[in-house]
Specification:
The chain has a single domain, classed as Immunoglobulin-like (Sandwich). It is mainly beta and about 140 residues long. It is elongated. It has 1 helix and 9 strands. The strands form 2 sheets. A 5-stranded mixed sheet has the order 1-2-4-7-6, with no helix packed on it. The chain has a 4-stranded mixed sheet with strand order 3-9-8-5, with no helix packed on it.
Amino acid sequence: MKTLLAAIATAMLVAGCGSAGAATGPTPSPEATPSTGVGLHFDVVVTEKDKVATIHVGQTLEVVLHANAGMNNWAQVRSSDQSILVPTVNPAATAVRGVTLAAFKATAPGQADVTAFASPTCPSGQACPMYVQVWSVKVTVTA
């Protein structure tokens, strides 16, 4: 009887883990991907895997950054040139734990870097390594 209960519990655990499904967001690529229209619409979505993106004046860019293991959430998501890429309110700003969201609107042609920083997660009262992880994507805005 114990063996049967153990087998059922294991089957339920495996089935539960398998039902999580695939991510609904865009697939990361060498160049940022156009939004798939799932949920709120952004013209282009970039993740921590992207290095470059191209958008047009008037379009919006969503930044979706996932924290790495042992690291705090990404912080200080900023545009290097706010005359080209202006931060805007991200209506989906409520993210799951470990995900940082930011949004920008392209207002003029040119190039701007979007950067973010993450620091290690350290237990209270213990020594912590002094380093920071830096992420950057070069955004080209065309007319």
